Amino acid sequence: xxxxxxxxxxGRRGILxxxxxxxxxxxxxxxxxxxxxxxxxxxxxxxxxxxQLGEDLADFExxxxxxxxxxxxxxxxxxxxxxxxxxxxxxxxYPYVNAxxxxxxxxxxxxxEANHCMSFEYVLETFPxxxxxxxxxxxxVPSMAAKEEFEVRFIKRMTEQTLDITTVEGKRDFxxxxxxxxxxxxxxxxxxxxxxxxxxxxxxxxxNFGSLIDWIVRDESLHLKFGINLVLTxxxxxxxxxxxEFADEIRQMILDAVAMEEAYNHDLLPNxxxxxxxxxxxxxxxxxxxxxxxxxxxxxxxxVANPAKWMAAANDTLQLVNFFEAINTSYEVNARQD
Length: 338
Prior knowledge:
- By secondary structure, this protein is mostly helical.
- The protein has one domain: Ribonucleotide Reductase, subunit A.
- The protein has ten helices and no strands.
- The protein has helices spanning 32-43, 57-62, 65-92, 100-126, 131-140, 142-159, 168-202, 207-237, 244-268, 278-295.
- Helix 4 runs antiparallel to helix 8, helix 6 runs antiparallel to helix 9 (244-268) and helix 7 packs antiparallel against helix 8.
- Mean pLDDT is 84; it is low at 2-11 and 314-338.
């Protein structure tokens, strides 16, 4: 992995640490990128009931069975996954960083994950979706259960085993957890689902639901940026961690995650829906994986083009974030004018 320098103040402790007395002073800020992301996250604060989902009910009724099934499948995956991310942050990230600005951002991110969970609950409450069946799918559908099992395996390393963050192997476990949650779950698997969710609006369906997803995407783009910056900072400050063997392991984690997502997408769309099928989604997944690999310092593995260029461009709501290339400002509280 190529380590991209991420600024840290001279003479201060590194970003990793578990001392309660550490990280009690915010200023001077050691990691400006974390503070900037916190400020942006606060400016982006929103609430699910600001979207009038009831206006989409007529669309839901006229959708095909396969389209309604796809939406239910997405809710089955997203709802528990948002809570799983919160556990990963609370038990696998927050206790092991000592910079106050990182704690501030992580606290806001945890609130956002809770807000996303309530957003998907709002969808389940509004549309005539079988909640019991939706809740059961993340256990009953093998491809969905495999993804959850993958994530749980990494969080258990952080919660049920002794993690000594002062050792090289402890630091590697910390990085593994960040890759599993911030890069794979939030940066590949979630974006794959977002593309499917937003594809309905491309066909003039579920436009308000699409706005809700827009706001979630904007939050997740900041989560992803924070996670990758944190990975790169840990590697910069602890160069002994990034051996060639460890880099190969991280790269393989991402490739294995792509294979799991491809199987999941065939279950998500077994018959395809208008303008969308599993092969199309999986090309997008491979494109995402190449982006994540590049951001971590690897070269692209798949070399595929983005089949969903509309995902990277602002549409009529002007709310989508083009990953790290633009920060959305269409919905901000206390937005500052420079």
